């Protein structure tokens, strides 16, 4: 990402070195009162460092019984680390964990489960080749010996009825949606008797309808006196579902307050410590219809290995200087579309044209060299090499170019200088470039990918759900970067499920449904109702169909 506007983006100073704003000051006092709330879990003075860098710095956190408690903070603020301490994945360097007032050592995740604490991580840990029922019973002390598939499935069906989370017990995990996989993860935890459920950014991969299903299940869980800790960057959802919030900044807890006394704006101020975010020029002003077409699909059809059609005769043009939004419920062909547009996937039928010329053998590296950047939807699996360092990942797309390479000569010194610049521009301040990228927080991984790809996108940037996992400052910075690119004549393809984001940032919006373009509208003529209808495959109220531009 480009550097944020002055005074924008993340707060680099530690809370200790800042003068708290009035709102913050009041809430820091509120934090002192926190210990007086009846606590199911109390974390006191939790400190945890990695290679000398403090991820948690004397954190206090109190969870009451029967509450949904949101844990908020910038990328890298230390939220996941704190929860990994509570679930026994990490041992704290200092501090105490109290469960119902009694000090407890949580040496491992199995001790956490035995204590009634279960966590569902951002990246699911299921075995794709196993069925839902097998995954739920894997490693569970109550799994019967020599149980047949039908016994495991019947036991799973009973859990489904008990907790109101619908999954198909006999389905293979590889074949189910992200929302269903999440329900399997939650059922795994609830089956083991969790009274405290920790969810790390659970709605990042869910459709709006799935979010409501999840929230209904969480409310039912709370109604039985259980508690939920919800790590989230989505303040609208936090206001909707949470009873209480704790805000972390730079490894410390800076505020704890009931949601009823907060607003989205006040929470945003607490998170980033300042009010100004990078502003993007207004979109939807219309791009010149004569602007050159940089990237084009003609009649593109893609099938998967089982011959199921993922994209069905797609015609699409990306023009210079436009932000082309792709709306649609995830799973309607978005992944295949972004991969075809970036040379990662060759169509079974149809043509991909760059600058009007058909590309005979589309290839990801060739497309990158032509200036087509790609922020894919699954950063850890497809955008990053998890075991390689930050520096290696940062320059991954520029190895063959000057200054990193000169002819066939690779220049490690130049690669390091460039990596440092990319890491700094991604605002991963004070990061060790030699650290494996898997040790970065989820949001910081996304920042690195976004910065690397916007750098190489001199023609087109294809961004699939690019703001997933980003904190509010980083979201604003990313949107500003997209508009800066489009102002320079780059075509930006923004794939998103969030209608608001598309209406605000796109010039045109194409709706993808069942692998087809259900319609393309100028953003100025689109509204949530019309887009929603197209996204669900209904065009009856618009008999003329969508307007093709
Ligand atoms: N295993 C690890 N090794 C080294 N550093 C780590 C490790 N786990 C976390 N960190 C560092 O600790 C800091 C806090 O990370 P953490 O994942 O807790 O942040 P977060 O608030 O959950 O961020 P996000 O919103 O991006 O998920 C980061 O600087 C991260 O790089």
Task: Give the name of the CATH superfamily of the domain at 293-377 and 457-535.
Answer: P-loop containing nucleotide triphosphate hydrolases
Count of DSSP E strands? 22
Uncertain runs: 1-36, 540-549
Mean pLDDT: 84
Give the assembly state of these chains. Answer: single chain
**Number of helical segments with 4 or more residues:** 18
Give the terminus-to-terminus CA distance: 31 Å
Helix content, binned percent:
25-40%
> Order of strands across the biggest sheet?
6-7-8-3-9-10
CATH class of the domain at 293-377 and 457-535: Alpha Beta
User: What is the architecture of the domain at 293-377 and 457-535 at the second tier of CATH?
Assistant: 3-Layer(aba) Sandwich
Let me know the largest β-sheet: 6 strands, mixed
Ions and ligands: adenosine-5'-triphosphate
Question: Any descriptors?
Answer:
549 residues; alpha/beta; Rossmann fold; six-stranded mixed sheet; 18 helices; 32% helix; 23% strand; disordered N terminus; disordered C terminus; binds adenosine-5'-triphosphate
Written description of the protein model:
By secondary structure, the protein is an alpha/beta fold. Among the domains are: 20-116 and 233-275, P-loop containing nucleotide triphosphate hydrolases (Rossmann fold, 3-Layer(aba) Sandwich); 293-377 and 457-535, Rossmann fold. Helix content is 32%, strand content 23%. It has helices spanning 22-33, 79-86, 109-114, 132-137, 149-163, 178-191, 208-223, 235-241, 264-272, 334-341, 364-369, 379-383, 390-394, 412-425, 442-456, 472-487, 499-505, 528-535, and strands spanning 41-50, 53-63, 68-73, 94-99, 102-103, 117-120, 196-200, 227-231, 244-249, 252-258, 293-303, 309-319, 323-327, 349-354, 357-358, 372-375, 405-406, 409-410, 460-464, 491-495, 508-513, 516-522. The strands form five sheets. It has a six-stranded mixed beta sheet with strand order 6-7-8-3-9-10, with helices on both faces. Strands 16-19-20-13-21-22 form a six-stranded mixed beta sheet, with helices on both faces. A four-stranded antiparallel beta sheet has the order 2-1-4-5, covered by helices on one side. It is globular. Mean pLDDT is 84; it is low at 1-36 and 540-549. Residues 1-22 are annotated as: Disordered. This is ABC transporter ATP-binding protein. Residues 41-275, 295-539 form the ABC transporter domain.
């Amino acid at each position: 990402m480009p550097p944020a506007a002055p005074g924008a983006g993340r707060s680099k100073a530690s809370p200790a070195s800042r003068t708290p704003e009035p709102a913050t000051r009041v809430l820091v006092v509120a934090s002192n009162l926190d210990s007086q709330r009846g606590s199911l879990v109390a974390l006191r003075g939790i400190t945890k460092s990695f290679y000398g860098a403090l991820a948690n710095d004397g954190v206090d956190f109190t969870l009451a019984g029967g509450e949904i408690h949101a844990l908020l903070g910038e990328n890298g603020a230390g939220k996941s680390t704190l929860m990994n301490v509570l679930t026994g994945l990490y041992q704290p360097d200092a501090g105490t964990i109290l469960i119902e007032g009694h000090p407890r050592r949580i040496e491992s995740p199995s001790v956490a489960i035995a204590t009634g604490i279960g966590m569902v991580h951002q990246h699911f840990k299921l075995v794709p080749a196993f069925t839902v029922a097998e995954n739920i019973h894997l490693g569970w002390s109550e799994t019967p010996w020599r149980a047949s598939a039908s016994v495991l499935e019947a036991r799973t069906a009973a859990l489904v009825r008990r907790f109101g989370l619908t999954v198909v017990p006999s389905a293979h995990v590889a074949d189910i949606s992200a929302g269903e996989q999440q329900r399997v993860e939650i059922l795994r935890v609830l089956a083991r008797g969790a009274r405290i459920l920790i969810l790390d950014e659970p709605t990042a991969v869910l459709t709006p309808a799935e979010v409501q299903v999840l929230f209904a299940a969480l409310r039912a869980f709370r109604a039985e006196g259980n508690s939920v800790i919800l790590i989230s960057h989505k303040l609208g959802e936090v206001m909707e579902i949470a009873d209480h919030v704790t805000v972390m900044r730079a490894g410390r807890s800076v505020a704890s307050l009931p949601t009823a006394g907060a607003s989205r704006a006040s929470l945003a101020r607490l998170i980033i410590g300042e009010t100004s975010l990078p502003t993007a020029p207004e979109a939807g002003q219309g791009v010149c219809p004569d602007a050159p077409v940089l990237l084009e699909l003609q009649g593109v059809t893609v099938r998967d290995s089982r011959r199921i059609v993922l994209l069905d005769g797609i015609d699409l043009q990306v023009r210079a200087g436009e932000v082309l939004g792709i709306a649609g419920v995830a799973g309607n062909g978005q992944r295949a579309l972004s991969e075809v547009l970036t040379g990662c996937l060759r169509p079974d039928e149809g043509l991909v044209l760059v600058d009007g010329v058909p590309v005979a053998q589309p290839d990801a590296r060739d497309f990158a060299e032509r200036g087509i950047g790609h922020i894919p939807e699954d950063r850890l699996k497809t955008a990053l090499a998890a075991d390689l360092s930050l520096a290696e990942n940062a320059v991954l797309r520029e190895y063959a170019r000057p200054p990193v390479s000169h002819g066939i000569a690779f220049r490690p010194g130049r690669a390091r200088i460039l990596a440092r610049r990319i890491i700094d521009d991604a605002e991963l301040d004070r990061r060790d470039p030699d650290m494996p990228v898997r040790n970065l927080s989820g949001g910081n991984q996304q920042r690195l990918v976004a910065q690397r790809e916007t750098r190489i996108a001199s023609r087109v940037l294809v961004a699939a759900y690019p703001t997933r996992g980003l904190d509010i400052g980083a979201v604003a910075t990313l949107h500003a970067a997209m508009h800066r690119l489009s102002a320079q004549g780059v075509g930006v393809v923004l794939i998103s499920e969030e209608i608001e984001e598309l209406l605000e940032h796109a010039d045109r919006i194409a709706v993808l449904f069942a692998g087809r373009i259900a319609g393309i509208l100028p953003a100025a003529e689109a509204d949530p109702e019309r887009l929603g209808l197209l996204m669900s495959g209904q065009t009856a109220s618009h008999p003329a169909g969508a307007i093709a531009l």
